[in-house]
Design brief:
Blueprint: E1 2-7, H1 18-25, E2 29-32, H2 38-42, E3 49-52, H3 64-76, E4 81-85, H4 95-104, E5 108-112, H5 117-124, E6 138-141, H6 155-162, E7 165-168, H7 175-185, E8 192-197, E9 205-209, H8 210-216, E10 225-229, H9 253-259
The structure holds S-adenosylmethionine (SAM).
S-adenosylmethionine binds near residues 196 and 198.
């Protein structure tokens, strides 16, 4: 009995590893996150049963306990079970709970890493997250708290202030407050910030300053969004790209101003 945890990467199926593709092709059942191009990935396992167990902020979501139970039940039936997770399974992916559920039932697990959103966003921006002489530390951080977590000591802010490049996951709805907090805590107002929606696929990308976003916030974007902050982002390239159907908001003011800057 075994469950494979596979990193699907940021969305573009071509960013999956060969190993991920090979193992996926042997799956009987695939439990996958919401934020991915499953049509492209289903090519690897057209005959497997594909079940979406994704969570999207503010929308009805599958309970974590149900996901854990399903992994165990399906593996015990002798099926080859793949748990396909967006990006890398070990980054903000509730991986620990799912591993624990399997281990408690003596089910073997194996993890195949994937390209996390931070790296895919940097690639889209044609830039580096570290920069010799400028940025020797990168933090992946989220200000999002779980249901029963208390916001003790502003942990996300301390982590963000300790690093030169800050990549924020699950943060776009609070972008204005985040930028204000970073400025108040001591990041220079003119620090570059890049916004990347739908990394590796069509989406909005723009570059601004902490001060501008602290003043104006962000337009509403439908796809997953990563915020990247730090002097290394000064070198980010924003290439013109078509507006996506999934991001009608990008036709409005702020994004329009920056998407083609
Ligand atoms: C629950 S976390 C999962 C992260 C994932 N495990 C990873 O390694 O990228 C979901 C958040 O990741 C970021 N994200 C995931 N895919 C993305 C993409 N294609 N483009 C931009 N951000 C993305 C967004 O901040 C989103 O809210």
């Amino acid at each position: 009995m075994k469950v494979w945890f596979i990193g699907a990467g940021p969305g573009d199926p071509e960013l999956m590893t060969r190993k991920a593709w090979r193992v996926l092709s042997q799956a009987d059942v695939v439990l996958h996150d919401a934020l991915m191009d499953t049509a492209g990935m289903q090519e690897a396992a057209p005959n497997a049963q594909w079940l979406e167990v994704g969570k999207r902020s503010g929308r009805p979501s599958v309970e974590q306990a149900f996901i854990c139970r399903s992994l165990v039940t399906l593996a015990k039936r002798g099926l080859t079970v793949v748990r396909l997770k967006g990006g890398d399974p070990s980054i903000f992916g509730r991986l620990a709970e799912e591993l624990q559920a399997c281990r408690t039932e003596n089910i073997d697990v194996e993890i195949i890493p994937g390209v996390t959103a931070a790296c895919a966003a940097a690639a889209d921006l044609q830039t580096s997250l570290t920069l010799r002489g400028e940025s020797r530390s990168v933090v992946f951080v989220t200000p999002r708290l779980g249901k029963h977590e208390a916001n003790i000591h502003n942990e996300w802010l301390n982590a963000a202030m300790a690093a030169q490049t800050v990549v924020l996951y699950m943060a776009s709805s609070q972008a204005k407050e985040i930028c204000n907090s970073l400025i108040e805590a001591g990041k220079p107002k003119q620090t570059p910030i890049c916004i990347v929606e739908n990394a590796s696929r069509l989406g909005v990308r723009f570059k601004d300053t902490l001060f501008e976003v602290a003043q104006n916030g962000l337009p509403k974007l439908d796809g997953p969004v990563t915020l990247l902050v730090g002097q290394a982002l000064a070198l980010a390239q924003i290439s013109p790209m078509p507006l996506t159907e999934t991001s009608p908001a990008c036709t409005a003011g702020l994004a329009q101003k920056h998407a083609f800057a």
